[in-house]
Structure of Cytochrome c oxidase subunit 5C:
Amino acid sequence: MANVPKIRKAVYQGPSIVKEIIYGIALGLAAGGLWKMHHWNNQRRTREFYDLLEKGEISVVAADE
């Protein structure tokens, strides 16, 4: 037999620590970015509410009928 390539068996080497750390950082940054966007949206809505309240365009008191 002339130069027959040997087939190697796949061996599980366990998790790559560096790769796991990179995945964790990436997921953390993505989740943190989504949380900040949610927080900024709530701040904007609260600011708009108080601006309209100050201008008198809305009221928190029920109108008498």
About this structure: Residues 2 and 8 are 18 Å apart (CA to CA). Residues 17-55 form the longest helix (39 residues).
